[in-house]
Structures are given as structure tokens and as C-alpha cells.
Design brief:
alpha/beta; globular
């Protein structure tokens, strides 16, 4: 105490800069538990956010479903001792860690968030970590605290769907698109009505939000929340229809978007989103030399768009779900859209 000294130590490199590259694309949900994981998997989901305890870990292993184990629920302190006790069970599971829920809103200490990430990465270097973020501007403070940042804007029914894509674009400016995931609104009405969400989202709204986030680079989707979205037969059918559409593109979702952006030229009277930008958003992916276009109409009316294809454009395209054919004229292909419609065009190989 009388002769204190300072010793310089090397600071560990901040983890969270490069997400694990295992190719896994989660299509999951909040609200998982040991009691419903089998039902979740039966709905086509491959992941769920669940609490970290013995019962849930065992259920994840039994259901053979990937679980994002929450280690920072509410005000509960991060428990390193629990990791020691649960280690034998964790070795049998497929999992990642959900490390924080909107820390910017709750003023969660940055140093504590980084400590949690450091501890988890030292124990499980190959496991991804996720953090939900509603305000992209706080990401620079927490960028060393998680691998993936899950943008969780809930626009239905009072905000444009582009609230989500705009937030993703802002977040990408800080950490790039390959560290982004998205939370898709799957709740409304009932206990949420007094807070500004008077009804559940429709199929068209959930489908649009899911694919719009993929177009803007999302590397995983989690729907919020189970069991709210299956509270009525109609909402359950709508939700499961969205999941089936996503699952049919599983191999494509695992591919990152092509680096070269697509140019969209609107040709209809109704052509702009609320910010005055083109109402249709598009991106492309390439798999085994074949190109796919993913396009989302972000407005609730009919519109047409010319999608300009860079490089050597395929002459013929087929809409993935309907089978409708489209043809390139010059360098672009014209696509009509219904309100909030998603169009997936696959190159027709001659």
C-alpha cells in the first residue's frame, strides 16, 4: 500500500470484430422454452432465444435445434459460475449467446458488456454472440460487445417498413452488413395495444420485413415473439407461411449479398418511400454461378420498377414462387409489384 507501482499489460484484442463464419443462417423466434421447442421446430424454425438453464439446454439438445442462450435477462447479473455448472450440458448442444437486450436504452455499462463478451469468447471462441439494438447510433459504443447486432424496429401499423431498413443501413456504416441480424415484428394487440401496437402484423407485413432485412444484409432473422404470433389461427398460418418461404431459400440465405449494388429506376406514378427514395429495394445473391434478385416493394400501393443489372445480364428470369417469367431489355428488367410485395427472380440458365 505504501509503494504502489503501475505495470503495463497488453490489452486483449477487442472481440466481436469478425463474426463466426460457419454459414448458419438462423430463422428463429423469441419466447422459446423447454416446453415449446418441439413446437417451434415443427413450425419450421431452426433457432430460438431461450434462458440459460439446465432444462432449456437439455430440451435444445433433445429437439436438435440451435438455441441462442440468454445470459443477460432483465437485471440478473452475469453468472460465471452457471457456465461452470452447465459446461457438460453445453457440450452437447448447438448454441450461441444472446448477450444483451437494447443496452443503449437501459444505459448498460459498456465495460460490463465487453467483459461478458470477453468471458464468453475465452470459453467458447467459436460461438456467436448477439445483441438487440433499437438505436443504431449506440453501436459504436458496444461494437466490442457482440458479434451480431440485431436491429429490432417494430413499425406495424404506424410506421413505414423502411424504419427497419434505414436502421440497418445506419448500423452498417459502423460495423458493416455482415455483422447485422434483424428482429421481425410478430406481435400486436392484446397487452401491446396500449403501447402503440394495436394489432398483429399481416402475412404481407411480416414477409416484407423479413425479406427487406435480407436485402439490406441481415445474417439472421428472429421473430418477436412466440406465442403472441400463434395466438389466432390466422396469425399462425400467416407466420408459418413466411417461415416456409424463408426455408425454401435456405441455401440462398446462407450466401452473402453480392457486393455490387443494384440500381432501381421507378417508372410508376407512385414511386417513393416516405423519405423520397425509390419505393422498391433490391439486392442480388449468387450461388453456383446462378444469380438471384430479391426485391421488396416498401409502399402499400401498386408500383413498377426497372432493375438495372450490372455486368452481363441474363436474358430471362423466373419468379421463384409464382413461376412468372420476366425478360431483360437492354440492361434492365421491369417488374410490377403489388402493395408490400416481395419478388424473388431466379436467372433462367439456357
Amino acid at each position: 500500500m505504501r509503494r504502489p507501482t503501475l505495470k503495463k499489460v497488453s490489452r486483449n484484442q477487442r472481440s466481436g470484430q469478425v463474426p463466426p463464419a460457419d454459414g448458419f443462417f438462423p430463422v428463429g423466434v423469441y419466447g422459446g422454452s423447454a416446453d415449446n421447442l418441439g413446437q417451434l421446430k415443427g413450425s419450421g424454425l431452426n433457432s430460438a432465444v431461450v434462458g440459460l438453464d439446465e432444462k432449456n439446454i437439455a430440451a435444445c439438445s433433445a429437439a436438435d435445434i440451435h438455441c441462442a442462450f440468454s445470459v443477460a435477462e432483465g437485471s440478473r447479473a452475469f453468472d460465471q459460475g452457471a457456465l461452470d455448472r452447465l459446461e457438460p450440458l453445453l457440450q452437447q448442444a448447438r448454441f450461441s449467446f444472446y448477450v444483451n437486450d437494447e443496452p443503449g436504452i437501459h444505459s448498460f455499462p459498456v465495460w460490463k458488456a465487453e467483459d461478458i463478451q470477453r468471458i464468453l469468447k475465452s470459453r467458447y471462441p467459436g460461438r456467436a454472440t448477439h445483441m438487440a439494438i433499437v438505436r443504431p447510433r449506440v453501436i459504436p459504443a458496444y461494437q466490442g460487445s457482440a458479434d451480431y447486432f440485431m436491429l429490432d424496429q417494430y413499425p406495424v401499423p404506424n410506421m413505414p417498413v423502411t424504419w427497419l431498413s434505414e436502421s440497418m443501413d445506419e448500423a452498417a456504416g459502423f460495423v458493416g452488413r455482415n455483422r447485422l441480424q434483424s428482429v421481425i415484428q410478430a406481435f400486436g394487440g392484446g397487452r401491446f395495444a396500449h403501447s402503440g401496437w394495436p394489432r398483429l402484423p399481416t402475412f404481407a407485413e411480416m414477409n416484407n420485413l423479413a425479406f427487406l432485412s435480407v436485402i439490406h444484409g441481415s445474417r439472421g432473422l428472429y421473430f418477436y415473439t412466440w406465442p403472441e404470433i400463434i395466438s389466432t389461427q390466422k396469425s399462425k398460418e400467416d407466420f408459418e407461411s413466411v417461415i416456409r418461404r424463408l426455408n425454401s431459400l435456405r441455401s440462398w440465405l446462407q450466401q452473402k449479398n453480392d457486393a455490387e449494388p443494384l440500381t432501381v429506376e421507378m417508372v410508376s406514378r407512385y414511386r417513393f418511400d416516405p423519405e423520397g427514395r425509390p419505393a422498391v429495394h433490391c439486392a442480388s445473391k449468387t450461388l453456383h454461378g446462378t444469380k438471384m434478385l430479391l426485391c421488396a416493394n416498401t409502399i402499400a400501393t401498386y408500383t413498377d420498377a426497372d432493375i438495372v443489372i450490372p455486368g452481363e445480364s441474363p436474358g430471362e428470369w423466373q419468379e421463384y414462387y409464382s413461376g412468372e417469367r420476366f425478360y431483360t431489355v437492354g440492361d434492365d428488367v421491369r417488374i410490377p409489384f403489388s402493395p408490400l410485395e416481395i419478388k424473388i427472380l431466379l436467372e433462367v440458365v439456357q
